[in-house]
Amino acid sequence: MLEIKDLKKHYIIGEQTFTALNSINLNFRKHEFVAILGQSGSGKTTLLNLIGGLDRYTSGDIIIDNVSTKNYKDKDWDAYRNHRIGFVFQNYNLIAHLDVLSNVELAQTLSGVSKEERKRRAIEVLTRVGLKDHMKKKPNQLSGGQQQRVSIARALINNPSIILADEPTGALDSETSVDIMNLLTEISEDKLIIMVTHNGELAKKYANRIVTLKDGLVTSDSNPFEVKRKDRLENTVSKSSMSYLTALSLSFKNMLTKKVRTLITALAGSIGIIGVALVMSLQYGFTDYLNNMERGTFAGLPLQVSRSYIDISDIMMSNRQQLNPLPPIEGGVLGYEPEVSRGLSTNDISEEYIEYLETSDLNQYGSIVYQYGFTGQYYYMAGDTLYTNPRSQGSLGSSGRSYVTQSAYAYEFVNDFFDVVHGTYYNVDAHEALLVVNREHKLPKEILTFLGLPTDQVVPFEDIVGKEFKVYTNNAYYTYNGTQYVPKNTTNNLEDLKTIYNSNSSDVITVRIAGIVKTNTNLVQVNESIIYTPLVATDVLAKNNVSDVVVAQRASETSVIQGVVFNPLKDKEDVLYELGGIDLPNTILIYPNSFDDKANIVEILDAYNEGLDEDDQINYTDNVAVAVSMIKTVMDSVSAVLVAFASISLFVSSVMIGIITYTSVLERTKEIGVLRSIGARKKDISRVFNAEAILIGFVAGLLGVMITYAIIPVINIFLEEPTGNSNIANLFYLHAILLVVISITLTFIAGLIPSRIAAKKDPVVALRSE
Ligand code: ADP
Ligand code: MG
């Protein structure tokens, strides 16, 4: 039972107030077929919209089953529309992208009815309106009369008590109109039907009550109804709401009708995702590659403690001083005493330090190689020719690097990173050496010359392996001329050197070349040379330490060697190191057993420095860490730039998706009106469009990730050459999932404003739009 009390509706247009309804008083019976007649503009539609809760009245009251609607909130009106009202429109207002069945079911999805029940009900009402065989058709595949029947079926599905029909036959021919009127008459047996029409004939023939409106006033009522006063009841209408799943399926079906557009939108949206995905895959791959290298190959490289080393931070500091000079002296210049700089920082590798290393757990985590600073004297004699100390060409007059040196490698390192070309590895407990050649089996001519071998033809491996050369200690190399010690090779004492070579003098150590080796990795830079075991070095050192020249030099504050003069860059200590008069290493190399052991080693090295003055601290260099961190820094800054670009495209595509969602809102305005008329809340409308944005975001993200996975193999082909790794670009699947989530989130955010606009649309205006 419906009562309308003193109902008024004013429209405010600018400054003016327009009265569309002026104090309407009408009561309706539970079951009757009421026709409202009136000229165009008399307020019929306005009245219907107020009764249906699509529009709000200015004053008065609508009382439904004894409940006043004065205090109704939006959600009460929504629920009221969903449960109590069925709308039938002149232009049917079916949703074009849904089939007949779904159009009818829609109102039930809002009232939370199960899927099976929904379908059963929909089929039932469709059967009732005679459309059982057309359920799978789209609205545009039906005639006008059929469409209106669908619209009536939709109005009936929630079994409402009131059907509001606004000119339901207005767009139909007279024959079809009769069919619809018959249907409505049938329905009015157990429902209240309020039908607006300007067809008086039809009204008289079918309706059992005719109300005439003119200029917003009731001018006649053929069968008025008086209500006895009763107590008003509280509102008991249960709520209506749309689940996210319904919203998603509604948007999904809508997007299916616009497949090409959806795909293009998603494709455009995916570009930003592809950008970010590629950057991520490259960065992930590179980081992984570097970490593996550090963990694997690089882990074999040593930490280094040197008596003198280049401290980059020191250099940078002095540069900074130059960059920030003190204010200049005014009116003149001032002399100062320049600091003597070796250009190097120094570590005081002392006996205590060696002791510390040896007694620590360090040997558990890696192997230590001590290198000594003595200048080695190497000789090889073939026939009557004495060959000596092969050196590389030094730049700017310096003597260059010796091609014969103590091995700087731990034995395990040699094992891991060198392959034997011929012979065997050296035995660390013997006076043995390895000849290191490059991967092409080439080596500097000087080395071949040293071994008395030809340099203009291929030398068979067998001619080298097994050869022996000799290391001369100080007593064999220096001769005393009464005042100074003189290197024998600078005087006419070459014969003496030859004699010693062939004698069994204990002042000479014989070293055997055990094998020829080459590296098996391009990650370790190895110079071609003859490398001998540390045992050779320590034995030479032991002899040199007690040699005549060393004993004499220790006792003298001036140089005892001919041709050597002390200066700030080469003082007594330096000379003693060169002579082997100090049995401390000038370089300590520590080879970690594994990447994890390296951390333990670093801890031990750092522990030594704790509580010591800066001058007494011993610093190590970790060339691997420096190199890796440098590469990482470069990589990070490059990817930061790329990420910035990708983010911009991500932002642009988000804005675009926002615009497209807005376009969709404009296109689906009528659908918004229909949804509201069947009881959808504002929240439900925004859900529909949020769902659309989310779907686009999902498709865009998925496309982006898929395209990235398709591009990655191509990128890897290009990266294989410079990196030697065929799998650098690599999109981690968790990152892929994250990107899809990001895409959904961004489009969701981008769609928020359009979906709010949609939710705020006035349903009356929305329904009127075409
Ligand atoms: P009918 O359905 O009887 O043709 P309506 O109820 O649609 O008439 O309109 C009644 C009057 O209210 C008309 O004069 C119309 O111009 C006016 N009207 C309807 N809706 C609005 C609106 N949103 N703003 C201003 N005036 C309106
Ligand atoms: Mg109208």
Automatic annotation (TrEMBL):
Residue ranges of domain ABC transporter in the record: 2-240
PROSITE patterns: ABC_TRANSPORTER_1, ABC_TRANSPORTER_2
TM helices/strands, residue ranges: 263-286, 640-666, 687-712, 732-753
Pfam families to which the protein is assigned, alphabetical: ABC_tran, FtsX
GO CC, any one term: membrane protein complex
Domain of life: Bacteria
Gene3D superfamilies: P-loop containing nucleotide triphosphate hydrolases
Keyword Aminoacyl-tRNA synthetase: no
Keywords: ATP-binding, Cell membrane, Membrane, Nucleotide-binding, Transmembrane, Transmembrane helix, Transport
Protein name as it appears in the record: ABC transporter, permease/ATP-binding protein
Protein source organism: Acholeplasma oculi
